From TrEMBL:
Residues 1-25 form the signal peptide. One of its GO terms (biological process) is cell wall organization. This is Fimbria/pilus periplasmic chaperone. Keywords: Signal. Pfam families: PapD_N (PF00345). GO terms for cellular component: outer membrane-bounded periplasmic space. Residues 38-147 form the Pili assembly chaperone N-terminal domain. Gene3D superfamilies: Immunoglobulins (2.60.40.10). InterPro entries: Ig-like_fold, PapD-like_sf, Periplasmic_pilus_chap, Pili_assmbl_chaperone_N.
Length: 242
């Protein structure tokens, strides 16, 4: 890249950083509920989307099986749950129902986790005259879906949480394990004097564990405190013994 082009690119990034909230507002998608559940004999669940922006938007809807381990998150293609429609166009101000349809019976005795991904696809109106010197943004919305069989439900059990500090390639990470039969949705997390987040921290799936890199040094003897939103409780714990 020539120096002159680098200068123009840097300027474009600066202007974009100033205009980004307004640019995103053009394609603002409202989605609800944010935590859909399918339980018992229920064959389908509802997901609503509304275009709050000023221009039309195209959305592709895909559903993946969701797993966690200490190594990270894994998403797998599956056909147990499908979205109808899988693709939709929303004009400005329009809303539409997406049905999440169960095609096979849920596995008995355990919570099944999925991720619904809604990807915005550029529309013809998003095209620019000079694609080589422009930046195209595509928003992705990710919604969890939990499925239960028979008499099971989100209230069938409770998360059983523990944590420890681990070193991964020289990086200190907070590892939280959940030995319970249902997931934990954690928010407002604090580790000692270190405020991890004021909002959503993340999920730990049933019988799984997950790691978060830490940006500041933390004493292993610190108290971890977080809200478990799906249980409406507060979890406080010292690190598990090694």
């Amino acid at each position: 890249m020539k120096i002159a082009n680098r200068g123009r690119f840097a300027l474009a990034l600066l202007l974009l950083s100033l205009w980004l909230p307004a640019a995103w507002a053009g394609h603002a998608v409202l989605i609800w509920p944010v935590d859909p559940v399918m339980a018992g004999a229920q064959k389908a669940a509802e997901l609503w989307v509304e275009n709050k922006g000023a221009t039309a938007t195209l959305l592709q809807v895909r559903i993946f099986a969701w797993q966690q381990s200490g190594e990270g998150e894994r998403f797998h293609t599956q056909q147990d749950i499908i979205a109808s429609p899988p693709m939709l166009r929303l004009d400005a101000g329009q809303k539409q129902l997406i049905r999440l349809i169960r095609q096979t019976p849920a596995a008995a005795g355990r919570e099944q986790a999925y991720r619904i991904l809604l990807d915005e696809i550029p529309t013809p109106g998003d095209r620019v005259d000079d694609p080589a010197n422009s930046l195209t943004f595509q928003m992705r919305y990710s919604i969890p879906l939990f499925v239960y069989a028979g008499q099971a439900s989100p209230d069938s059990g409770a998360p059983l949480l523990s944590w420890r500090l681990v070193q991964v390639k020289g990086q200190t990470c907070l590892e939280i394990a959940n030995r319970g039969p249902v997931h934990a949705r954690l928010s407002r997390a604090r580790l000692g004097t270190y405020q991890l987040t004021d909002g959503l921290f993340g999920y730990v799936l049933a019988n799984s564990s997950y790691r978060w890199p830490l940006k500041a040094p933390v004493d292993a003897g610190s108290l971890l405190e977080a809200r478990v939103d799906n249980r409406k409780t507060v979890w406080r714990s010292r690190a598990a013994a090694r």
